[in-house]
Design a protein that fits this description.
The chain is built from 4 helices and no strands. The protein is an all-alpha fold. The chain has a domain at 23-74. Helix 1 (19-26) crosses helix 4 (67-74).
Length: 83
Protein backbone atom coordinates (compact mmCIF):
# COMPACT_ATOMS: atom_id res chain seq x y z
CA UNK A 1 0.00 0.00 0.00
CA UNK A 2 1.34 3.45 -0.91
CA UNK A 3 1.83 6.01 1.83
CA UNK A 4 -0.69 8.81 1.29
CA UNK A 5 0.01 11.07 4.25
CA UNK A 6 2.92 11.82 6.53
CA UNK A 7 2.42 14.06 9.58
CA UNK A 8 5.01 15.73 11.78
CA UNK A 9 4.92 17.49 15.11
CA UNK A 10 6.24 20.91 14.08
CA UNK A 11 6.55 22.96 17.28
CA UNK A 12 9.94 22.48 18.91
CA UNK A 13 10.36 19.26 16.91
CA UNK A 14 10.99 20.44 13.36
CA UNK A 15 10.82 24.16 14.07
CA UNK A 16 12.40 26.50 16.58
CA UNK A 17 9.20 28.56 16.76
CA UNK A 18 5.77 27.70 18.11
CA UNK A 19 3.34 27.83 15.19
CA UNK A 20 0.24 28.19 17.38
CA UNK A 21 1.72 31.17 19.18
CA UNK A 22 2.55 32.88 15.88
CA UNK A 23 -0.94 32.13 14.59
CA UNK A 24 -2.59 33.47 17.74
CA UNK A 25 -0.66 36.74 17.50
CA UNK A 26 -1.54 37.08 13.82
CA UNK A 27 -5.20 36.58 14.71
CA UNK A 28 -5.17 39.33 17.34
CA UNK A 29 -4.54 37.43 20.55
CA UNK A 30 -2.16 39.37 22.79
CA UNK A 31 0.91 37.69 24.28
CA UNK A 32 -0.63 38.13 27.75
CA UNK A 33 -3.94 36.52 26.71
CA UNK A 34 -2.07 33.63 25.11
CA UNK A 35 0.06 33.14 28.22
CA UNK A 36 -2.93 33.36 30.57
CA UNK A 37 -4.85 30.68 28.67
CA UNK A 38 -1.79 28.43 28.41
CA UNK A 39 -1.13 28.72 32.14
CA UNK A 40 -4.81 28.09 32.97
CA UNK A 41 -4.68 24.93 30.86
CA UNK A 42 -1.43 23.78 32.48
CA UNK A 43 -2.78 24.28 36.01
CA UNK A 44 -6.06 22.54 35.23
CA UNK A 45 -8.44 25.51 35.45
CA UNK A 46 -9.12 25.52 31.70
CA UNK A 47 -10.02 22.38 29.75
CA UNK A 48 -8.46 21.96 26.30
CA UNK A 49 -11.87 22.10 24.60
CA UNK A 50 -12.72 25.33 26.42
CA UNK A 51 -9.34 26.80 25.51
CA UNK A 52 -9.96 26.09 21.81
CA UNK A 53 -13.52 27.43 22.07
CA UNK A 54 -12.26 30.60 23.73
CA UNK A 55 -9.61 31.10 21.02
CA UNK A 56 -12.19 30.59 18.28
CA UNK A 57 -14.45 33.20 19.89
CA UNK A 58 -11.53 35.65 20.14
CA UNK A 59 -10.59 35.10 16.49
CA UNK A 60 -14.16 35.73 15.35
CA UNK A 61 -14.65 38.77 17.57
CA UNK A 62 -11.44 40.40 16.35
CA UNK A 63 -12.07 39.64 12.67
CA UNK A 64 -8.43 38.89 11.95
CA UNK A 65 -8.63 35.13 11.33
CA UNK A 66 -8.01 35.28 7.59
CA UNK A 67 -6.15 33.01 5.22
CA UNK A 68 -3.80 35.87 4.39
CA UNK A 69 -2.91 36.45 8.07
CA UNK A 70 -2.39 32.72 8.59
CA UNK A 71 -0.11 32.39 5.57
CA UNK A 72 1.89 35.46 6.56
CA UNK A 73 2.33 34.20 10.13
CA UNK A 74 3.18 30.62 9.21
CA UNK A 75 5.45 31.12 6.20
CA UNK A 76 8.69 32.11 7.93
CA UNK A 77 10.31 29.43 10.08
CA UNK A 78 13.72 28.44 11.32
CA UNK A 79 14.11 24.66 11.15
CA UNK A 80 16.14 22.59 13.61
CA UNK A 81 19.30 21.04 12.15
CA UNK A 82 18.45 17.79 10.41
CA UNK A 83 14.73 18.57 10.09
Amino acid sequence: MAIKLVCFDMDDTLLHQKSWYKLNLAFGVTPQEDNDMCEAYKNGTLLYEDWMRKLTEMYRARGTATKENALRALSNYTFHDGA
